[in-house]
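Methods — Computational structure assignment.
A single polypeptide chain was analysed. Its primary sequence is given first, followed by the predicted tertiary structure written as structure tokens.
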Amino acid sequence: MRGLRFAAALVVATMLHVAGARLFPDFSSAIDLFLLIVVFNALDGNTLAGMLGGLAAGLVTDALTGGPFGIHGLADTIVGYGTAYAVQRLVIQRVTGVFQLFALAAATQQALLMGVSLLLLPSPEAPRILWLMVRIVSSGILGSVLYLGAERLRSTAEGWQAARSSKIRFDK
């Protein structure tokens, strides 16, 4: 079930990414939907799922961006594992903590991408600082909104489940 939800999220993110990139030329510079999926997938603390989710989302990102294949796969794998590892050791319950986690994941991903590019590419191109900051802040904001939406959906489902089970009666 978890794998199907992740695959569905990856398909939705791919469609939104393609549509956003066609409508707004700087969409992929400002928003990384695949990173949001990686971090959201790792929020339960499962390091294997975080790594595999990061690898899958990173490879899809590589296929869509047309850059060196595997660079996002490597960076997102590390971010997914690191996020799951951090969540195992930290208690993140408030929106500010979620914002910080998503923003830190975006900053880490960009640092890893720049480091790997410096090591592997003959003439790496550094991202502009403005777009780097926009991406980090947008990741924090969108991640917080997704987290709040998932929490609200979860509490609504639990309330519905409790109300539903209390109404079942057997008459004699």
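Note: The chain has a mean pLDDT of 90.
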